[in-house]
């Protein structure tokens, strides 16, 4: 199999290979931004992953032609066979957004504006949310209020 192979099979293997690369990038986490991946490892070779995932991606696209397949960890463990599954990209994104604070490290919460975890003391309490805190840290919550109040004042004077 050469580098210049073309066709649907080559494209599928390329896409699956990109998934493997992205899994590793999340686990390497050089910026420390993805605390939920701290200590998580990819416990399979690229070749083994491509062999496992390519037929599953192909079948997923047959079963769900309007969806994009993606890899999901079943629990917060490592990327390893038995703990990964193929789900739609849309479901994976929804799951990630819903779980940001559910899987937050102890004493931390996710700020939607900063896109990172911060100490929970930096968040206002909000009983309507699962983790009991706002989705914006206090700094960004106050900025949002200033913007909203400024907009309201402009419209009120018109």
List keywords for this structure.
158 residues, alpha+beta, 2 domains, two-stranded antiparallel sheet, 4 helices, elongated
Please tell me about this protein's structure.
The protein is of the alpha+beta class. It has 2 domains: 1-99, no CATH class; 107-158, no CATH class. The chain is 44% helix and 16% strand. It has 4 helices and 6 strands. The chain has helices at residues 8-28, 46-63, 89-99, 138-157, and strands spanning 69-73, 84-88, 108-111, 116-119, 123-125, 133-137. The strands form 3 sheets. A two-stranded antiparallel ribbon has the order 1-2. A two-stranded antiparallel sheet has the order 3-4. Helix 1 packs across helix 2. The longest helix has 21 residues, at 8-28. The protein is elongated and about 55 Å long.
At a glance:
It contains 4 helices and 6 strands.
Beta-strand content estimate: 15-25%
- Weakly predicted, low-confidence segments: 152-158
Q: Biggest sheet, in brief?
A: 2 strands, antiparallel
Continuous helix count: 4
Give a count of the beta strands, DSSP E runs of length 2 or more: 6
How many domains, in number, for the residues?
Answer: 2
Structural class: alpha+beta
Return the string of H and E elements.
Answer: HHEEHEEEEH
* Average pLDDT score: 80
| Overall helicity | 40-55%
Shape: elongated
Oligomeric category: single chain
């Amino acid at each position: 199999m050469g580098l210049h192979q073309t066709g649907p099979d080559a494209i599928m293997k390329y896409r699956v290979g990109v998934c493997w690369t992205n899994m590793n990038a999340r686990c390497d986490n050089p910026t420390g931004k993805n605390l939920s991946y701290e200590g998580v490892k990819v416990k399979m070779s690229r070749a083994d992953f491509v062999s496992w995932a390519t037929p599953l991606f192909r079948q997923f696209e047959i079963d769900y032609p309007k969806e994009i397949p993606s890899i999901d960890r079943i629990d917060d463990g490592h990327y390893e066979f038995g703990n990964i599954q193929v789900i739609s990209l849309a479901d994976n994104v929804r799951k990630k957004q819903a779980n940001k604070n559910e899987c937050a490290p102890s004493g931390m919460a996710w700020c939607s504006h900063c896109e990172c975890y911060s100490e929970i003391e930096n968040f206002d309490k909000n009983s309507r949310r699962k983790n009991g805190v706002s989705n914006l840290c206090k700094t960004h919550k106050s900025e949002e209020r200033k913007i909203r109040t400024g907009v309201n004042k402009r419209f009120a004077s018109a």
